């Protein structure tokens, strides 16, 4: 059974029925904090009510937003209004890989961007890296039908910088659900408007809105773990078998960047992550 909401503990039972549950004190002591996405054992006590007896082991856990057992991330990026950070986009994709999660890229608010060639470069770069990429205009539903029509499983999290339109996109994907949005502030950045984390059913999987989201947190002890999150580098054979594609001589990846075969920002962000998370240089 999956915990759909932790603020008012709600569990989906057999047949899709929902139960408002009480959590036993020892359960809270054992896990420290009950999270949306937790798989639980519960006992029905009254019609529509139950008691959570046990939290099953988690496959993974996000710190912000507090969601467990996440299958994948929808990483939302806007080129304009507000202008997003490709570095933060790459950090989220890397953190997804490190957390054992799938990831897809959503380019939002594409109607507000006059730089179609830059959108093309971004889309082509992430498709070349193996990520599904979707262009959307959530305010009118453009592109949303193709996004939602895909078959997925498990729990997915909408994530991205403030103001990129996560809640508006959620509304477009789930038109009968009530999620709160608000306009951008004068600074051009967005204000977080969702009040709590909740899972919503969509086409056979669950999706969570992600209030207060700023960044995923991950640490590694070996550079090749980060390298594995940049699959477009894997097709190049370097002079040295242990090349980390940073400052090594004869690096084919560095040469591929110079030839325009790899997006320069992807390589730049990779090297920065390598220096921050793995103290090599």
């Amino acid at each position: 059974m999956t915990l759909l909401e932790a603020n008012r503990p709600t569990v989906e039972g057999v047949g899709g029925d929902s139960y408002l549950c009480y959590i036993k004190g020892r359960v809270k002591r054992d896990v420290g904090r009950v999270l949306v996405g937790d798989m639980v054992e519960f006992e029905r006590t009254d019609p529509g009510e139950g008691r959570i007896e046990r939290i099953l082991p988690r496959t993974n856990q996000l710190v912000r937003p507090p969601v467990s057992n996440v299958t994948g991330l929808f990483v939302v990026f806007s080129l304009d209004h507000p202008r997003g950070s490709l570095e933060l986009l790459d950090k989220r994709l890397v953190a997804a890989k490190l957390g054992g999660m799938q990831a897809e890229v959503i380019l939002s608010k594409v109607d507000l961007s006059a730089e179609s060639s830059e959108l093309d470069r971004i889309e082509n770069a992430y498709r070349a890296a193996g990520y599904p990429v979707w262009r959307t205009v959530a305010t009118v539903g453009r592109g949303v039908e193709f996004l939602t029509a895909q078959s997925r499983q498990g729990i997915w999290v909408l994530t991205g910088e403030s103001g990129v339109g996560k809640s508006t996109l959620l509304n477009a994907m789930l038109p009968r659900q009530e999620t709160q949005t608000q306009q951008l502030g004068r600074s051009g950045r967005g204000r977080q408007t969702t009040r709590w984390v909740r899972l919503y059913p969509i086409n056979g999987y669950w999706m969570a809105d992600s209030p207060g989201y700023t960044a995923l947190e991950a640490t590694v002890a070996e550079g090749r773990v980060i390298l594995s999150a940049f699959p477009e580098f894997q097709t190049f054979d370097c002079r040295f078998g242990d090349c980390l594609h940073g400052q090594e001589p004869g690096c084919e990846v560095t040469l591929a960047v110079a030839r325009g075969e790899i997006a320069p920002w992807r390589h730049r962000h990779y090297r920065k992550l390598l220096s921050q998370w793995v103290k090599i240089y």
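Confidence is low (pLDDT under 50) at residues 178-195. The domain at 2-55 is CATH 2.40.50.140 (OB fold (Dihydrolipoamide Acetyltransferase, E2P)).
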